[in-house]
């Protein structure tokens, strides 16, 4: 059950973390669906993920900037309301492995590590080539994420889940 830590009025806050994979270009659809289900959405992206996004559209939809970098030393806040949930979609081979190992060299992976440590309910939806999914590091790192309470939506060789399925998983966190 979510704690309500990120409530904006009666709505809940979800951080959507996007990495550099093709599905990131369709993220606006998921943002609209999440908003329709009552979520306030904030988008955070890896630097490569931002190249796949329609940043202008996402900023218009969410009313907030897409966060792609760490805050500056003079900034006292990251400008984000506290999250009730996090959805990493799409999350890449690189970001899954860094997340599991705690390598926070991007604000996106840093946020994933921090929020799992805070106990914020989190869903990971990898988009990874089958060849990379069979790499010796990948499956064990998915298990590390699962052991930390992350719900992982991934099967080797299967297509990425539909946006409706990701939204349903997010809704199950409520």
Automatic annotation (TrEMBL):
SUPFAM superfamilies: Homo-oligomeric flavin-containing Cys decarboxylases, HFCD. Residues 15-166 form the Flavoprotein domain. InterPro entries: Flavin_trans-like (IPR036551), Flavoprotein (IPR003382). Pfam families: Flavoprotein. Coiled coil: none annotated. GO terms for molecular function: catalytic activity. It comes from the Bacteria. This is Flavoprotein. It comes from Actinomadura barringtoniae.
